[in-house]
């Protein structure tokens, strides 16, 4: 939430201050904020001394404007910035100062709006910036379109700044629409203008000559200075990358202009990120959901770890989900057992008398034998140090038991390798070296380091760190990547890098005579950067499933990489 509001305010301030800078040679300019609500933009600009020749007009429903006017008059600090408010406002003008006008008008009544603005002194012949932050989308399309066209036709030198939602058709977009509908604030423009391209066409078709648009992931990456990005990323403990990137991919900032010389282009990027259109899908994969169990509270979680502990037995531990009617870090274990072609689900009886398990997410679980698994790392709060190692012991015959009868014992594990395990969003993968089994612990993040690029080899019999030489250029540091075994080595794909940017690289750590060697797996077309996915090797194919990617309107499905040729194909999941 903090970052979401920050990036919205950052985008608006960036564009507004660019307008003021580019028009500073004009004797007079004006800003018209549509649906301004209780926005403090005027007061911040005035306090910074940026309104020397600019008048700010704010418009909202009459009851909102009256409440804001009363608040301004009640607070000495605000009224001092406005100056002489002229006592009680008259008519639609509820508050007025030398460079500030607050009007109570319904934006959908265009003729009334135009009359009120003229009465308040708005000049259609001087440079004017229109601001609409999540406003037009609440209006009927015919009325919001008329407002966009009116602004272009009536004003000879005009700029428009729009911030709104988009992508209504994917799962995040559907929940977003449901959320606003439940607040009786339906998003009316999404069906007609579902993406950046549609919004850009809208403005160009309604009289604006220049128009640029980008989603908020692109704005943060391309229009926010690197030192500012680093400042924001370090402000507070943060580990909600998936929600952050999904939210930013569903909001955009748009700027349009006409009659401006030179053209107004505040969305010129500092750095260039390749723009991605719709992903070309090679086909669709039907997903046969097990309807009986897919709605199970025990399975509705994320940040967990599901592992095949033996053929047809899947154990799920940790993560964040719903438990006892509350959203929380999940303590219960869950098991799926396939018998006679049918999956059966149940909660595991967990034996942990001293609460060794507690809560954890973004950990790993690796099977060591038919009755033993190793838990490495994970976290509770991102502000705390990562968790260490535990063993999970389960009966060898659990595949023959009913799911509710399976028992898992949680055992503490003193180990010299414990410091290496104090991380989360990492990977542990079984590898072979000179006929011996090792767990390759790679990447992740910790309470002190936002991204790690180191690795350890854990010798499975005694779980101690073993030094094994590794040759070749090491991959970029990453977390939330995937890693799976292949030919005795490890395939590492994707992840989130040091700048919180998804990665599209694939590496193979293969056994050589002296140890291991990193090799780059070249893919064509290039793999779309993604993270928080899962990966599986099937034959000579690497399958990447789900996850998060940015700058693409579609949802990640299944990507198939041919490990012999490098051919990379994307499939939608139905």
Automatic annotation (TrEMBL):
A Pfam family reported for this protein in Swiss-Prot or TrEMBL: LCM
As one GO molecular function, the record gives:
tRNA methyltransferase activity
What does the record give as its pathway?
tRNA modification; wybutosine-tRNA(Phe) biosynthesis
Biological-process GO terms, alphabetical: tRNA methylation; wybutosine biosynthetic process
Q: Which reaction does it catalyse?
A: 7-[(3S)-3-amino-3-carboxypropyl]wyosine(37) in tRNA(Phe) + S-adenosyl-L-methionine = 7-[(3S)-(3-amino-3-methoxycarbonyl)propyl]wyosine(37) in tRNA(Phe) + S-adenosyl-L-homocysteine; 7-[(3S)-(3-amino-3-methoxycarbonyl)propyl]wyosine(37) in tRNA(Phe) + S-adenosyl-L-methionine + CO2 = wybutosine(37) in tRNA(Phe) + S-adenosyl-L-homocysteine + 2 H(+)
Its EC top class is transferase
- Cite the SUPFAM superfamilies for this sequence: Kelch motif, S-adenosyl-L-methionine-dependent methyltransferases
| Keywords recorded for this protein, A-Z | Methyltransferase, S-adenosyl-L-methionine, Transferase, tRNA processing
Q: Does the keyword Disulfide bond apply?
A: no
InterPro entries in the cross-refs: Kelch-typ_b-propeller, Ppm1/Ppm2/Tcmp, SAM-dependent_MTases_sf
Please give the family membership noted in the entry: Belongs to the methyltransferase superfamily. LCMT family.
Name assigned to this protein: tRNA wybutosine-synthesizing protein 4
